[in-house]
Amino acid sequence: MMQSTLLRRIAPTLTRRALSSNAAEASSVMTLNFNLPHETIYNGATVSQVIVPGAAGEYGVTADHVPVVAQLKAGVLQIMHESAGEPEKYFVPGGFSITHDNSVTDISCPEAVKVDDIDPAAVSSNFEAARNAYTAAEAGSAAQAEAMVDMEVYRSMGSAVGINLS
Predict the structure, then answer these.
(1) Are 29 and 47 in contact (CB under 8 A)?
(2) What fold does the segment set 30-115 form as a domain?
(3) What angle do CA 63, 66, 72 make, to 5 degrees?
(4) pTM, two decimal places
(5) How far apart are CA 130 and CA 50, in angstroms?
(6) How far apart are CA 128 and CA 136, in angstroms?
(7) Which of 58, 61, 90 shows the shortest CA–CA distance to 76?
(8) Do residues 13 and 101 touch, judged by C-beta distance below 8 A?
(9) Rg (Cα) of the chain, in Å, rounded?
């Protein structure tokens, strides 16, 4: 019973993809929309792949990817452009990714910074400040929880630039 329900749900998508007149084109490119509250980084950009730091694990999205909604964790979002070369890398503190069945992926984050623009010394200093705030805060307080979140974000940011913060 469950298999037939699943088949009924996915059959239209599979049929549409199999009968697509642009199957060769659709299998190589996808559209990316990457937005912050104060800035649009990409709007309708054609890319070959995006590697997303999902809360349940890192995963890659290419054209014709199955639809998925994912919460992002602090980490590196990688964008592979059609012209190959090195991926464009952004550090994101979290957010959401929505991949639609038409090879469009929407990514929304509260902030993003190019990994190349991150100062490792500032990350290390801010991590230490967050650790001190955590230690100084009352156990179980909101201040301690905020400091713990800050520590995790700076730890992830440090990892993005090749430093190990413990």
Answers:
(1) yes
(2) ATP Synthase; domain 1 (2.60.15)
(3) 90
(4) 0.79
(5) 31
(6) 12
(7) 90
(8) yes
(9) 19
For residue 94, count other CB atoms closer than 10 A to its CB.
Answer: 17
Collapsing DSSP to helix, strand or coil, 41 comes out as: strand
User: Cα separation of 130 and 73, whole Å?
Assistant: 18
Residue for token pair 């190589």: 28
Q: What angle do CA 77, 49, 35 make, to 5 degrees?
A: 50
**Confidence (pLDDT) at 124:** 97
Please give the Cα distance from 63 to 66 (Å, whole number). Answer: 9
- Does residue 94 contact residue 109 with C-beta atoms inside 8 Å? yes
CA dihedral 89, 93, 94, 97 (to 10 degrees): -20
Tens-level pLDDT at each residue, the chain (166 residues):
555 554 455 545 544 444 444 444 445 899 999 999 999 999 999 999 999 999 999 999 999 999 999 999 999 999 999 877 899 999 999 999 999 999 999 999 999 999 999 999 999 999 999 999 999 999 999 999 999 999 999 999 999 999 999 8
